[in-house]
Amino acid sequence: MDVIPHPHIGIQTVSWLLDGELVHKDSLGYEALMRAGQVNVMTSGRGIAHSEETPKVNTGKLSGVQLWVALPEQHRNTSPLFDHHAVVPEVEIAGGSALVFAGSLLGQTAPSRTYSDIAGMEIRIHGDGELSLPVDPEFEHAILVLSGAVQSEGRVLEPDTLHYFSEGRSSLSFNGGKGARLLLIGGRPFRESILMWWNFVARTPEEIKAARDSWESGSFGEVKGYPPARTPAPPLQLARKP
User: Fold this and answer.
1) CATH 2.60.120.10-classified regions of the chain
2) What is the pTM of this model?
């Protein structure tokens, strides 16, 4: 993997590795080697550039997810930040366990810095019985099957599909074979209207254009430790406020 420097505004990128290694470098000067079971949280705020690449010494495997979390209005223009956490809480549940990389579960809270009420965790099923996970009824949730065969509420959760669970639930239940893994994300419904174009999340077309112009002019800064290279912004298409 070699993703050359590119910009972001208005979001947090939450990177969670299942297998392999990844090196993050950014325009703040941070460089971090992430391994499976570790989490990187980059708060773009008003603007940051970064690159992502497989290190020269690696296991030959790479699997993971990168989640984009929209920043609420009061925080979307904050100063950019980067956090790497080598350890996250592991919570034992009847029938399995959960690695919590965002939010809280059964009194255990992830170290990740967040700006809205969200949850993110990797769930591991240890046996053939039912696993019941307590959740906040004010949250909506989604599940992605990472490996194995999994059922919920009597239906098979197909792979390569994001399965949605609406608010009002105090628990989610799953059945799967030993070794099955799930990704769970959730949070309070995001009521703000956003405008997303390329790597930018904003509110108006004018903000998008300003961010693109800033990137093209070099105002986002240089990604330290990466050879001189940058991803050119695509042509700006007509964008309408949602």
Assistant:
1) 2-78+191-217, 90-114+117-187
2) 0.93
Q: Which residue has the tokens 């999340």?
A: 201
DSSP-derived letter for residue 209 is H
The whole-angstrom separation of Cα 229 and Cα 196 is 24
Note the pLDDT of residue 125: 93
Class (C level, CATH) for 2-78+191-217: mainly beta
Residue 102 and residue 88: Cα distance in Å, rounded? 9
Amino acid at 109: T
What pLDDT shows up at residue 130?
Answer: 87
107-150 residue pLDDT tens: 999 999 999 999 999 999 987 778 999 999 999 999 999 999 99
Instruction: Give the CATH number of domain 90-114+117-187.
Output: 2.60.120.10
Contact 53, 23 (CB under 8 A): yes
- Which pLDDT tens digit goes with each residue over 68-85? 999 999 999 999 999 999
Cα separation, 197 vs 19, whole angstroms: 30
- From 101, 139, 147, select the one nearest 122 (Cα to Cα): 101
182: tokens are 């799930």
Q: Which two tokens stand for residue 142?
A: 């989604």
Chain segment 191-223, per-residue pLDDT in tens: 999 999 999 999 999 999 999 999 999 999 999
Helix (H) or strand (E) run with residue 119 in it: strand 118-125
